[in-house]
Design a protein that fits this description.
single chain; about 240 residues; 2 domains; 10 helices; about 35% helix; globular
Length: about 240
């Protein structure tokens, strides 16, 4: 799978055809390699999104919508199917607003913002103490590092800003306006993006099918790759 440099800003993608029909978008902290098994069945362009894999970090922070606008310039018109896992699925939804996509495959994507958990409620309390001058900025940052997600703890600088933008993104409105045929693929044991998110999104999207992979978690790309390939091939 040859890597292709797409521009002078060092954005890379795996491309196996001059006229790919499928675009793959990986999750946060991952790379195009996540789709190595699945992509073998298709002509494709498989991105390392900016800041991941071989691709350079963006110079300024980017929301999922801005990621979509950025990569859109590199996607050939031959692409009619977009497959996104987790964060990549957020980008895929916004991409569907920018171009004609026949089929949208969304795998374990946080499409709807979940209600805040207790630890985030406590963080809001600590932020209030910070505004009152009781907690310093350094104390707040230390709390975030201890209480924040794995992705937050392992991101820094612009990429942490990008993560915050992604986490705060709610696609509820966009879901109702998707015109593509949508296939939601979810692991029944997904703890990061619970199955109830998929069921709620399935109700909002006009042309949607929900496929539940029994016993699978948040990243079924390798363990259930044959099932995913079959779903992508669904007419």
């Amino acid at each position: 799978m040859p890597y292709k440099l797409l521009n002078d800003k060092k954005t890379f993608a795996n491309v196996n055809s001059e006229n790919p029909t499928v675009c793959f978008l990986h999750g946060w902290g991952r790379s195009s390699q996540d789709f190595n098994l699945i992509s073998q069945s298709f002509s494709y362009i498989n991105f390392d999104l900016p800041g991941f894999g071989k691709s350079q970090e963006p110079e300024t922070s980017m929301s999922p919508k801005e990621y979509a606008a950025y990569i859109n310039q590199f996607i050939p018109n031959s692409v009619d199917t977009v497959v996104g896992h987790s964060f990549g699925g957020r980008v895929a939804v916004y991409l569907s607003e920018l171009r004609n996509i026949k089929k949208l495959i969304l795998i374990g994507v946080p499409l709807i913002k979940q209600t805040s958990s207790a630890k985030f409620t406590m963080l809001d309390f600590y932020k209030t103490l910070n505004r009152l001058g009781i907690f310093s900025d350094n104390m707040i940052e230390n709390i975030k590092k201890k209480k924040g997600s794995y992705d937050y703890r392992n991101s820094k600088g612009i990429m942490r800003e990008n993560l915050v933008k992604a986490v705060n993104d709610d696609l509820s409105f966009e879901l109702e306006n998707i015109n593509s045929d949508v296939h939601l693929i979810w692991g029944s044991e997904d703890k990061e993006v619970p199955i109830n998110i998929a069921k709620e999104a399935n109700k909002k999207i006009k042309k949607s099918n929900l496929h539940i992979l029994e016993g699978q978690g948040h990243n079924p790309l390798n363990s259930s790759y044959l099932e995913i390939v079959n779903i992508i091939n669904t007419q």
